[in-house]
Amino acid sequence: MSKTRFLLPKENSAAYQKIAELDQIGKTGSISESLQELIKIYASQLNGCVFCIDMHSKDALAKGETLQRVIGLVAWEEAVFYTAEERAVLAFTKEITLIHQGGVSDKTYQELQQYYNEKEIGELLVLIGTINLYNRIGITTLLQPKMD
């Protein structure tokens, strides 16, 4: 197992503070805390960021999310326990996170529009973009969660 390379909050606190401010904006929007955590877990799974998967899974469980839904995120497309709205958001999360594989499709965007207006879609975009940035920091610096 590799050792953490460096801690960005220590080495570049000004930049990290700006990222934290962006994260705070996402937390104060109209998207429910539960859905925010599902977004963060799923994007982190797609990116392979163990630190963020660990942190946001624990946060989701502490906020009342079920273990089944947290574990099932990796295969949400086959799972029956996510709502149509959540499925639209998870598809959006996947396509943004894997943007290099063809961007966000019209189909995904149109499904999302059934549940969200443009302001809310913008909030989702900021949430997804921010967790992707955190994932890149965690992966690059080899940030590891503490053992339970």
UniProtKB/TrEMBL annotation:
InterPro entries: AhpD-like (IPR029032), AhpD_core (IPR004675), CMD-like (IPR003779). SUPFAM superfamilies: AhpD-like (SSF69118). NCBIfam families: ahpD_dom. PANTHER family: 4-CARBOXYMUCONOLACTONE DECARBOXYLASE FAMILY PROTEIN (AFU_ORTHOLOGUE AFUA_6G11590) (PTHR34846), CYTOPLASMIC PROTEIN (PTHR34846:SF10). This is Carboxymuconolactone decarboxylase-like domain-containing protein. Residues 24-95 form the Carboxymuconolactone decarboxylase-like domain.
